[in-house]
Amino acid sequence: MSVYLPTLKQLQYLVALEQHGHFGKAADACFVTQSTLSAGLRELESLIGVTLVERTRRVVRFTPLGLKMAEKAQRVLREAEELAEMARAAGKPLTGDLRLGVIPTIAPFLLPRVLPTIRANWPELRLFLREETSGLACESLHRGQVDCVLLALPYACGDIESIPLFDDRLYVALPQGSRADLPDTIGADEIDETKLLLLEDGHCLKDHILSACNRPELRAGATMLGTSLHTMVQMVENGLGVTLVPHMAIEAGLLDGTSVFARPLHADHPSRRIALIWRKGSPREKEFRLLADTIVNCIPAPPPAASHDYDDPQIDRMWGL
């Protein structure tokens, strides 16, 4: 008995509908009309003899089997895409399309420094950027929506490969009135947990700060309400508390035009590690390593390195220590 094999186009329609939960939006994502997408899915259901999607006027609801097939279809589409990438990567490196995910505590501070060099070195590369919090960026990576991600480690992101780029020192940001008689560095044990402001859940910088300070009471006492580092700095300037910011943000001018000043955090592990990550087994690994080298070469040469944050002998670059 012959078995019907779904087409890649039908799988694309199925995955798009599962991701968007709306026929119109899924059709737009696939660059087809809504009727074309709907007809393609009905043909798929008819040929395999099962219902994948329950349709009503207001709700698109996947059946349990439909959800399983959509998940498998994502992997099939990713593998198919990687077949094409294998052929392309065998030719000239870093040409064509590359989708790069970047987290919000890196994107506005690092990208302006590195993008001009990337454009100059790899003029045939079409770089598409997607800014998302760490969890969403990892999900996009494994869904095949991005090819690689600029992420701050440590962060659990599933089955990935990574190359460390540099370590990014954390600084304590304080309001102007705190300046008198402050030491050159501020110890983690000197931070008042009732005045610590952190980014809201979803930003890995929050966890890196709490890990660097290594004080369990900070997790319970800190106020988690900031949606961006710029917002956090404004709250500090208005006397609502103190926060911690990465050195790359300070170098990029985060504190310019404010009365907020910063001191390096003194702790056993005062940094987060910036890395480029990609799906394990990706045929574009050599290209990602070329991209990582380009980014590293854009970073100012560091002063003599202090002790590193994590057990990784590959890292000998520190930024801001």
Describe the structure.
Belongs to the LysR transcriptional regulatory family. Residues 6-63 form the HTH lysR-type domain. This is LysR substrate-binding domain-containing protein. It comes from Sphingomonas naphthae. InterPro entries: LysR_HTH_N, LysR_subst-bd, WH-like_DNA-bd_sf, WH_DNA-bd_sf. This protein is of the alpha/beta class and 321 residues long. The protein folds into two domains: 8-88, Arc Repressor Mutant, subunit A; 93-321, D-Maltodextrin-Binding Protein, domain 2, CATH 3.40.190. It has eleven helices and 13 strands. Strands 3, 4, 5, 6, 7, 10, 11, 12 and 13 form a nine-stranded mixed beta sheet that branches. The chain is elongated and about 80 Å long. Residues 302-321 have low confidence and may be disordered.
Q: What's the structural blueprint in terms of helices and strands?
A:
Layout: H1 8-20, H2 23-30, H3 34-48, E1 53-55, E2 60-62, H4 64-89, E3 96-102, H5 107-121, E4 125-131, H6 134-143, E5 148-153, E6 160-174, E7 186-187, E8 197-199, H7 204-213, H8 216-221, E9 223-226, H9 229-237, E10 243-246, H10 247-251, E11 261-266, E12 271-279, H11 285-297, E13 318-319
Parallel strand pairs: 3-4, 3-5, 6-13, 7-11, 8-9
Antiparallel strand pairs: 1-2, 5-12, 6-10, 6-11, 6-12
Helix pairs in contact: 1-2, 1-3, 1-4, 2-3
